[in-house]
Design brief:
- The complex is a heterotrimer of chains A (333), B (889) and C (188).
- Helices cover 28% and strands 14% of the residues of chain A.
- Chain A has 9 helices and 10 strands.
- In chain A, strands 8-1-10-9 form a 4-stranded mixed sheet. In chain A, strands 2-3 form a two-stranded antiparallel sheet. Chain A has a two-stranded antiparallel ribbon with strand order 4-5.
- In chain A, strand 4 (158-160) and strand 5 form a beta hairpin.
- The longest helix of chain A has 27 residues, at 306-332.
- Among the domains of chain B are: 2-234, Dimethylsulfoxide Reductase, domain 2 (3-Layer(aba) Sandwich), CATH 3.40.228.10; 256-315 and 464-531, no CATH class; 667-873, Barwin-like endoglucanases (Beta Barrel), CATH 2.40.40.20.
- Chain B contains 25 helices and 29 strands.
- In chain B, strand 13 (412-415) and strand 14 (420-424) form a beta hairpin.
- Chain B is globular.
- Chain C folds into 3 domains: 1-35, no CATH class; 38-96, N-terminal domain of TfIIb; 105-187, no CATH class.
- Chain C has helices at residues 10-16, 30-33, 86-89, 91-96, 119-136, 164-176; strands at residues 44-49, 58-64, 67-73, 105-107, 115-116, 138-141, 147-158, 179-183.
- In chain C, strand 4 (105-107) and strand 5 (115-116) form a beta hairpin.
- Chain C is elongated.
- Classes of the chains: A alpha+beta (333), B alpha/beta (889), C alpha+beta (188).
- Chains B and C meet through helix 11, helix 14, strand 10, strand 11 and helix 17 of B and strand 1, strand 2, strand 3, helix 3 and helix 4 of C.
- Chain C: Belongs to the prokaryotic molybdopterin-containing oxidoreductase family.
- Chain C: Residues 43-99 form the 4Fe-4S Mo/W bis-MGD-type domain.
């Protein structure tokens, strides 16, 4: 466990005095229908510019490509044949035998969640391996327990919110871009340009231009007791929002259910607090290896060595405080 | 929608539900999570298939063979729901001795007239005494053994629809067929129900209405109608496309599905008896009452018993006057003015070129929309301007673009796909000159009436005598709720004068009540706008009867009497919905019973009285004249009482079942711009060797008027594309994400290429059939965020005779690598292929007799057909004058 | 903005407070500390229905100063349960797209450009043309002498995305005027 996130969770370490759990997403890609409502609801709420040059990208039905400064939810489309599906089943089976949880009682249903119901009727025979499948998965900022972007931000523009999410303050950010290289998922980016209208007709300028930009877990909705725009709109609730421990429990249960039904390709991503980023606030259920979806298989926070650096930084900071204090004293004269 | 979650099996066929109705698909996901099975039958592997237990690829247009095969399977193996079939369907009814089946007549039903290309349906009638038949009591054989029972006819009719025939016709492997058939059989009956969902994948065929009928027959046989998790869900595509059919802006009906009168129907009683006879069973026996109430709503005090309630104010039809007939008339110069209310035919209607050319022949046109859609700018930047064929200086159409208020800028109701009426409140005022269509129409009517106020011309009386006095607000906007109240109806005289009707049951035939649409009566009962009911779903049971209002009478599942057995008991605890409560002597349950509330299950009915009184206690199908679900439809369908398979006119596959290649009643229009590939009926068919089918995708909406103008939707799917299999791509040399040109007998378009295993070549009739997918959302103009060639430019105006809807789903083309030519080269390319196919006479003299030429003589009333299509003459005859010069026939 | 004091400096807050690593409370800007959703400033919110497909998803429309500022799903609906597809989720842009037309546009016959036109004038011109086309293509009876009482000079298309009440008025008025060629998306 890294020094940077204690057992109270990441937000407690950031000085928040509150009584709510860490919040996050559970994205169950096994019920994603690839409608991209999450992308639109996100852009609409956050008034983010459109991406790209309005040409087909060459990646199945995906035309926004990847997460970036303007696209904070991104749906990947992956077409696969039988051989790859069998490999995925095998690799998933192995993962689970390495310590997936057993079947426990379902957690209580959230809004729109399927009630636990009686599954005794469910057909337990493993399905034939299909000849073909089309995977869809909505990606988003992971809101890491140990967030590289946050660790390296030299201006204090990025902060850990009371919900455990990692949020950029565009009014503080000076656009230095240090955070961009610190994200092991390639999520955060600097917004170069843009308004909602296409490039050809952009007139007004986005005040958030030239600042770092990424998913805020809809910080401005959470403060009002609302859930993020993407999970609120998700037609099949492939994206759910909630307390991180509940979501993780739901996610594990869902994996167990799918394995029961023979879909041994199911596995979780980001639910392991011992991984290179201390686990993520956004947990995913995948049906294949992470790379297939464009996710790094073993993400590492680049500031792992930070504890060592930290001591030295502390000394430097103390010196700086003294200097600043002196300058204030000087100003009052 | 919620009822999807009650299904044990969901068969989605002719619909791409996850893409076209994503939010409704949450209920399919719920069903799957509960362990239900989902099967998707579709030519393409789509986002729906990706979330189904199995995708079964099918050759487009062969659904009747597949479902006919399932019908055969359940009949031969006695897997149908016997008690249900016996009690609630017309299986035991005897059919006229004169009836002849396509199995015996080479693919035609009895009664076909090759001269007119139409059927006389008298030989399809029930057997028995005419008066008894009229009272819904035809001859029956309850043992189902008589050879003329519907049951035996059905068995014979589908006897050749074997798994082998399914494979040979649909390209579906026997194990996939077995999976579908046994899934349906296992998930139907007392304890389980199967639901079908379809959309335009069935409707848009020449024979599409019969595809829907086939699933209707199957669902009746399996006992899945009127029950929770059963039925057939028509997934309609527009916010109030259901409402605009109920309260139609359609030529052939009046509100509440009353037919528009035809020329010669000048006796009011005769007209209403054609709709419903007083002595027949069920609710249609009161057709006269519904009509009188409509006429009272429209003409108020001017509608009296003496003048047949102003029935003679109604204009008369002389055949079909659908949107495609209107385009032909435009091209003749016969239409001066055209109104578009949020519609974009230059992109969204079949044969885009003819649509646009039609618009150039108008004197004036009013476009009411949010954006500068292609139908508003065709004169400036349409494809025919781009090619140099036309210029604005040559187009005389006077254009009025009137900005429209959107759904947040006006109050009013939409009726969604399960007949539920929902009210919208107004959030803001419309910007600038934008107005609601309500205000536009009211204001236009007001001005026209003002201009005519001194007229003594009898032609103007219907306008001047019209009730046209709605309260308006300070902006001149009429009160939509006042219009809804008129639709609901009210008492005009008597003690309750002025009060809203509680239901259509209160409507009278003496002029003391009025109501603009009988099936909507009750939506404003007690003066409460029930469409505005919004009790949160979380506070209600699964029926959620207090959210919105569903016609008729807030029933959520139609014919729900059938959810109980003949004795009135639920078929099973698991599937209980509506049942008879002996203690209270009423029907009760989770829904409003779709049955006379106190009629006992053992009530024999009173045939002497007719109407609702004549219904027996187990006549569950209360709208049918005999109270039964119709496996065999003696009336109502113009192309046969049973669905039977025909190939699409452009199909290169000979019909494996009959010598009759294509639907003999199909409608087409002869025009140099509306040519068809001869398909299998002549040699040139091989010039267009591939099948193409069109569809919508999640990210866009229909012709793009509400999506291609929105940056957030445009970026998700910016360009027109085609979907092809890797096999076809290899055969033609198509590069992934490169360009392709697709050529049909009508036009040529270009599209980016998606090479994908989601498209499967099928092996049918000894050949490989390649199907090409084309979304239809793009069009050529300059105002939208994104543009592209329109798939509808490839499609002909070839219609289903029942519905007058075009065949968008099954046409032939060829495909080439690279972009299409610019300028006149595009037309030359199309010509070149027409010439090769023998569609152009000069270089390829016609030798096959050209029997498809339209016969002489005017159409008789009620035969809505342009040009019939006897088989041998699918190719357009040479030297014929264009239909532009021919009268509507 | 209030003048910064020494104690407001993030680094001081960092050292003084419970956020010694300077990644939480210590670095929040005043704007962050006063974050509220834009819907909180709405003048009101009304219940509506999505204008795209026929599922009939319920929408909540937030508005401020006479403009729609946000549209999202209404969780109360038993049909949609608060969810919207990409089109429904984009419907605020449907109202506010930079391409939205709000002025009457007129193109004279054989004209090459759009022109401005006053709405009242436009309505009057349309009413005149309606009457003229109606008269010109009027049919009293067919060849057999059966009454027809109709005009073939006027046609319309549309209605599947407008309201029931609007369709009712169109059907009522056009029928009374004898204009039978009235169609909508339901036949396409």
């Amino acid at each position: 466990m890294s020094l940077l996130a204690g057992p109270e969770g990441p937000s407690a370490d950031a000085g928040w005095d509150h009584d709510h759990e860490r919040k996050g997403f559970f994205t169950d890609t096994s019920i994603c229908i690839g409608c991209k409502a999450c992308e639109v609801a996100c852009k609409e709420w956050n008034r983010n510019p459109i991406d790209g040059n309005l040409e087909i990208l060459g990646s199945s039905y995906d035309n926004t490509g990847e997460l970036g400064a303007n696209t904070w939810r991104h749906v990947a489309f992956v077409e696969q044949g039988q051989e790859r599906i069998e490999e995925a089943r095998e690799s998933g089976r192995k993962l689970v035998s390495l310590g997936m949880p057993g079947i426990g009682p379902k957690s209580s249903g959230k809004r729109g969640a399927t009630p636990a119901g009686d599954l005794s009727d469910v057909d337990r025979t493993p399905p034939d391996t299909p000849e073909f499948r089309w995977l869809m998965s909505s990606d988003v900022c992971k809101h890491c327990t140990n967030a590289g972007c946050l660790d390296v931000c030299p201006t204090g523009a990025i902060f850990r919110s009371e919900y455990g999410s990692v949020v950029v303050q565009q009014d503080v950010c000076n656009g230095c871009g240090t955070c961009v290289s610190a994200c092991p998922f390639g999520v955060i980016e600097r917004r170069d340009d843009g308004t909602v209208s296409p490039f050809a007709v952009r007139e007004e300028e986005d005040p958030r231009r030239n600042t770092a930009s990424k998913c805020t877990l809809c910080y401005d909705r959470l403060v009002d007791g609302e859930q993020p725009a993407c999970s609120a709109t998700c037609p099949t609730q492939s994206i759910t929002f909630g307390d991180h421990p509940d979501l993780t429990a739901d996610a594990k249960q869902r994996v167990a259910d799918l394995h029961e039904r023979g879909m041994t390709e199911a596995r979780l991503y980001g639910a392991n607090p011992k991984d290179g980023v201390g686990g993520t606030g956004s947990v995913f259920l995948l049906l294949d290896e992470p790379e297939v979806y464009g996710l790094p298989p073993d993400p590492q926070v680049p500031t792992k060595a930070l504890p060592k650096l930290y001591a030295r930084t502390g000394i430097a900071a103390a010196g700086m405080v003294a200097a600043v204090a002196l300058s204030f004293l000087g100003a009052r004269r | 929608m919620q009822d999807f979650a009650n299904a044990d099996l969901i068969v989605i066929e002719g619909s791409n539900m996850a893409e076209a109705h994503p939010v409704a698909f949450q209920w399919v996901i719920e069903a799957r999570k509960r362990g239900s099975r989902v099967i998707h039958v579709d030519p393409r592997f789509t986002r729906t298939s990706a979330n189904a237990d199995r995708h079964i690829p099918i050759r487009t247009g062969t659904d009747i063979v597949l479902l006919g095969g399932v019908i055969r399977h359940v009949l031969e193996n006695e897997l149908y729901f016997k008690e249900y079939v016996q009690a609630y369907t017309n299986a035991s009814t005897l059919i006229s001795e004169a009836y002849g089946d396509p199995e015996d007549l080479d693919g035609l039903f009895s009664g076909y007239d090759p001269e007119t290309g139409t059927y006389d349906n008298t030989t399809w009638a029930y057997a028995g005494d005419p008066d008894a038949i009229a009272r819904g009591l035809p001859e029956r054989d309850e043992t189902l053994q008589h050879p003329r029972t519907v049951f035996q006819i059905l068995k014979r009719h589908y006897a050749r629809y074997t798994p082998e025939m399914v494979q040979e016709t649909c390209g579906i492997a026997p194990e996939d067929f077995e999976y579908l058939a046994s899934s349906i059989a296992e998930n139907s009956g007392r304890e389980k129900t199967t639901m079908f969902a379809y959309a335009l994948g069935w409707t848009q065929h020449q024979g599409g209405a019969q595809m829907i009928r086939t699933s209707g027959i199957l669902q009746l046989l399996m006992g899945n109608m009127g029950r929770p998790g059963g039925g057939i869900m028509a997934l309609r595509g527009h916010a109030t496309i259901q409402g605009s059919t109920d309260i139609p802006t359609l030529y052939h009906i009046l509100p509440g599905y009353l037919p528009m009168p035809k020329a010669g129907q000048d006796d009011f009683d005769e007209y209403t008896r054609l709709v419903g006879k007083k002595e027949q069973k069920g609710f249609w026996a009161n057709a006269d009452i519904y009509t009188i109430n409509l006429l009272k709503a429209w003409w108020g005090k001017h509608a009296t018993a003496e003048n047949d309630w102003a029935y003679h104010h109604l204009p008369r039809l002389t055949g079909a006057h659908g949107t495609y007939q209107t385009v032909m008339r435009m091209l003749e110069g016969g239409v001066d003015g055209y109104f578009l209310f949020g519609q974009n035919p230059a992109v969204g209607s079949a044969n885009g070129r003819m649509q646009r050319l039609g618009l150039t022949h108008l004197k004036w046109m009013v476009v009411r929309d949010f954006y500068m859609i292609e139908s508003a700018t065709f004169w400036k930047d349409g494809p025919e301007i781009e090619s140099g064929e036309l210029s604005p200086e040559q187009i005389g159409t006077e254009m009025f673009f009137l900005p429209a208020a959107n759904h947040t800028e006006k109050a009013g109701s939409f009726t969604q796909t399960q007949r539920m009426v929902q009210w919208r409140d107004q959030a803001v005022e419309p910007p600038g000159d934008a107005k609601s269509d309500l205000e536009f129409m009211y204001e236009l009517g007001r001005r026209v009436r003002e201009k005519l106020k001194d007229s003594s011309d009898p032609r103007d009386r219907p306008i001047l005598e019209l009730t046209w006095d709605y309260p308006v607000n300070e902006h001149g906007e009429p009160d939509a709720e006042a219009v809804l109240a008129e639709i609901n109806g009210r008492h005009i005289s008597g003690e309750r004068a002025g009060q809203p009707l509680a239901s259509f049951g209160e409507m009278k035939d003496d002029g003391s009540t009025s109501g603009g649409c009988w099936i909507y009566s009750g939506v404003y009962a007690d003066g409460i706008n029930r469409a505005r009911k919004r009790t949160p779903g979380q506070e209600q049971d699964e029926t959620a009867a207090e959210w919105g209002w569903a016609w008729p009478g807030n029933r959520r599942i139609l014919y729900n009497r059938a959810s109980a057995d003949p004795e009135g008991r639920p078929w099973s605890e698991r599937k209980k919905w509506v049942w008879w409560d002996e203690e209270t002597g009423t029907w009760t349950g989770k829904d409003v019973p779709d049955f006379p509330p106190t009629k006992r299950p053992d009530d024999p009915g009173d045939p002497g009285k007719g109407g609702v009184a004549a219904l027996a206690g187990n006549d569950a199908f209360t709208m049918q004249s005999d109270g039964r679900g119709w496996l065999f439809a003696p009336t109502g369908m113009v192309d046969g009482p049973l669905p039977t398979h025909y190939e699409s006119p452009e199909s290169n596959i000979p019909n494996p079942l009959y010598p009759q290649q294509s639907n003999p009643t199909r409608v087409t229009f002869q025009d140099e711009d509306n040519l068809s590939s001869p398909g299998a009926s002549a040699q040139g068919g091989e010039v267009y060797p591939y099948v193409f089918t069109t569809y919508r995708i999640t990210e866009h909406h229909t012709a793009g008027g509400m999506s291609r103008f929105l940056p957030y939707l445009s970026e998700l799917q910016p360009e027109m594309y085609c979907e092809v299999s890797p096999e076809l791509a290899a055969e033609i040399g198509l590069e992934p994400y490169g360009w392709a040109t697709i050529i049909s007998a009508r036009n040529a378009i270009e599209a980016k290429v998606l090479v994908t295993e989601r498209m499967t070549p099928l092996h049918v009739g000894g050949r490989t059939v390649h199907q090409i997918g084309l979304p239809f959302h793009w069009g050529r103009g300059s105002a939208a965020v994104v543009q592209g060639d329109g798939a509808n430019d490839l499609i002909g105006m070839n219609l289903d005779a029942n519905t007058q809807i075009q065949n968008s789903k099954n046409n032939s083309c060829t495909i080439l690598p690279g972009r299409r030519p610019r300028g006149p080269g595009r037309a030359e390319l199309v010509e070149e292929y027409r010439r090769r196919a023998g569609l152009i006479p000069a270089l390829h003299p016609q030798v096959d007799g050209a029997e498809g030429a339209p016969g002489a003589g005017p159409a008789t009333g009620g035969t809505p057909h342009e040009v019939r299509g006897p088989e041998e003459a699918t190719a357009v005859p040479t030297g014929e004058p264009s239909m532009k010069e021919m009268r509507n026939r | 903005m209030a003048r910064k004091t020494f104690l407001d400096w993030p680094v001081i807050r960092q050292l003084r407070g419970a956020d010694p690593t300077g990644r939480g409370t210590a670095v929040t800007s005043p704007r962050t500390r006063s974050t509220m959703p834009r819907t909180a400033e709405a003048d009101g919110v009304v219940d509506s229905v999505c204008p795209y497909c026929a599922v009939g998803c319920s929408q909540r429309v937030f508005h401020k100063d006479g403009r729609v500022i946000n549209i999202e799903g209404n969780p109360d609906s038993p049909v949609s349960r608060g969810r919207l597809c990409p089109k429904g989720a984009a419907s605020e842009q449907l109202a506010n797209s930079y391409l939205r037309q709000t002025k009457v546009r007129y193109r004279r016959p054989y004209g090459t450009e759009w022109e401005d036109l006053d709405l009242d004038t436009a309505m009057d011109m349309i009413a005149d043309r309606f009457l003229e086309a109606r008269r010109k293509h009027w049919e009293d009876e067919d060849e057999q002498g059966n009454p027809l009482r109709r005009t073939m000079g006027i046609a319309s298309l549309g209605g599947a995305t407008i309201d029931n009440e609007e369709n009712y008025l169109i059907k009522k008025f056009f029928t009374a005027a004898g204009a039978i060629q009235m169609e909508n998306q339901a036949r396409i």
